[in-house]
Amino acid sequence: MIKLILNHKMMNLKESMHIIYNLLLFISMAILYFIETIVLTLVPRRYRAKSIKGEIALITGGASGIGKLIAIKFAKLGAHVVVWDINKNGLAEVAEEIKKNNGKCWTYYCDIADKEAVYHTAKAVQIEVGNVSLLVNNAGYVYGKTFMELPDCEIEKTFKVNILSHYWITKSFLKDMMKNNHGHIVTITSVAGLLGIYNCTDYSATKFATIGCHESLFTELKVHGYEGIHMTLVCPYLINTGMFNGVKPSRLMPMLEPEYVAEEMLAGVLANETLIVLPKVLRYLLPFKSLLPMKISWALMYHILKGPQIMMTFKGRESSDTSNDNSTRNYNDICMH
Description:
single chain, 7-stranded parallel β-sheet
């Protein structure tokens, strides 16, 4: 009986020591990372930018808008750019512009809502170009109607394009990144993934999902020691790409210009930053959503920032390449940032 009591006490002591050890480890790491954050904030991005020369960079929805700007900027830095899109005219234009500046570009027509098309095109890229080491999941789709007005087919399409495709595309190239312990995955999502937006019950749901998927994959890679694979989450506000016809931006935040967003994203990726929120002030305002009582945070977001209702007047824009897509809106760019 005494032996059992002693064993029990020893187990409690070991458990207590283990808790204390983990607590001290956490405090040490917190201090270290806090100092690292301060140092990296003070050091300009250009001094910690990595080279992407020779990297094979794939951008989905890269035939226009932000995707096109990113593709061109990557090519100027020496990356071998691969562009996927459903806009055939746009694909030809981006390839011509990149090659005109002596860059390297391969274009593929690919409907990322079609799983088999994704896997087939990914295999073609691996054979014809090589292993993708810099992946930018950029393409997005929005229908822009209230919950009861959303057709079932549009809900399904939004989920296929905005989140399910991320699984199919990333799975296609992650294996080689893991084999080489080298790569970079960029998820361009939206502030609609941080805050529910009017007319976006389907869209916001998919953007919340992309953030969850991205963060979970980040955790898995870190736990298994893949320190050479970097991940960057980009959450922009409304971007002035022409896809927001009719939208009235928040009174405190005008639409972002595409060039600014592309430059910020490029600088963040080259510096291996894990999170980019644009405009930057949102990174400090959005936590109030969780810190304040729900009614107060709603009043702040709705009456002061005028955030949730920005899509009330959304009209969208007509597809510029209707021969490739039967919908009234294409998804060759992020539709709601």
